[in-house]
Structure formats: C-alpha cells, structure tokens
Design goal:
mainly alpha, 1 helix, 96% helix
Length: 107
Amino acid sequence: MPNTVLKQIEEAEAAAESIRLDAVREARDMLKSVEEAGISQARQAAKALSEETQKRMDAARVLIRDEIKSLEVRRGAEREAMRNLAMARVKDAGLAVFERIVSDGNR
C-alpha cells in the first residue's frame, strides 16, 4: 500500500506539472496574441493618423494655392494700375524736362 500511495502522489505531481506547463504555454500564447493585437492596432492607428495628416496637408495646400493665385491677381492689377499711372505721367515728365532745358538755355 505505501507504494500505491507514493505512486498516486507521483502521478498527481506529474499531472500537476503537466497542467502547469499547459497553463504556462497558454499564458505565453495569450500574451503573444495580445502583443500582436496591440501592434496591429498601433499600426492601424498610425496609418489612420498619417492619412488624416495627409488629408489636412492637402487641404492646406489647396487653400495656400488659392491664396497665392488671389495675391497674384491682386498684385498684377496693382502693377498694371501703377504702370498706367506712370505712362500717363511720361508725357508730363517729358514736357517738364523739355521746358527746363529750354528755359535754362545754354549755360
């Protein structure tokens, strides 16, 4: 009988060890699964953030291009107005120079 009790204890210990090893394996597998899920979620979040950032940058580029075009049109109109004003004064400036030369004579 002592051998049977000892044998039962050894069998129980072996079964317990087997259960422990299975639990360790399962825990490792669960941990690995959780880590992979976390990495996957992090990648998806980074991708979504990158896409959102790209959309915002594209929208900002469009706004900036529109603003640049608007400024170019406005400044082009300002330059044209200044040019027209200058062209209108050319005749007056030429007459003023001519009158000064004529009034000063050959000094």
